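Pilot study result, target chain (141 residues):
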Amino acid sequence: MNNFKRTILAICLVVGILAIAIIIGITQQPPVITKTAEVTLTINPSPDFSLAATPEHLDSFPDRVATFTASVTSVNNFGGEIVFSVSGLPPEITVSILPSNTLTLGAGETRGVQIDIGIPLNQALVGDYTITVTAKSTNYN
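Predicted structure:
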């Protein structure tokens, strides 16, 4: 093989290698770039409130008023409207919840109502009664 043919062959070989290199360079995809971010999810207990009545025992007489306090305390950032009711007493005995049977409790607060039990002058009512105070909320945060 003469030098001319070798030169042409070498040029073709170089051109072929360059063409393959160019084709490979064109068809290669750029590197994939991936980024991530993390978010922490904390699931807290549901908002709630606690209820306490003080004193836990009352002594009274006919034709008197016995008074106790019902207090509610926000738990887990509870905030909302609370409605109080009292049960467990004969119908002749009156119940007054002051200043109202409904109060609004803010997150982190403790609030209370005064409950007056009006006992009429009736000796037939003498005895022990279990008074149940209920605090209910359907409208809260």
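One observation from the pilot: The first helix runs from residue 3 to 27. A full batch analysis is planned for the follow-on phase.
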